[in-house]
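so im writing up the methods section and need the Glutaredoxin domain-containing protein record in one place, dumping it here so i stop losing it
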Amino acid sequence: QAYRTHLASFPTNLSLLSCITSNFSVFHCSISWHIIKQKGCLNLKMDRVRELASKKAAVIFTKSSCCMCHSIKALFYELGASPAIHELDNDASGREMEWALQGLGCNPSVPAVFIGGKFVGSAKDVFSLHVDGSLKQKLIDARGIWF
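--- predicted struct ---
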């Protein structure tokens, strides 16, 4: 019953609130208020991330204000790819999808890049692939670019 006192002052949105059940864990967010993270909800968001990631040869999860996200998008366009862009700050489920991406090991959570439905990594990983020449080949193999 102690968790109910936290709920009274808990700022949230309805999609996260609908995920709360008696089986939850509490953690502290960087702005020092309690956020309730329920594992089933994050699994649903991970399924949503995987679904979106598999719909196109190249998929990038971004935030509109992120300069590294802009750089990754520009790189893909320069290579001739037209990736699906999902801006998490413009999505009602964006925060939960961001947590799901962090669960994949993407820290910071954006940009998160998928090629051929497979998680490639964040900006550092993508730039490393570009420098060694394998990013272009991955896009060709996934039919994200043609010659």
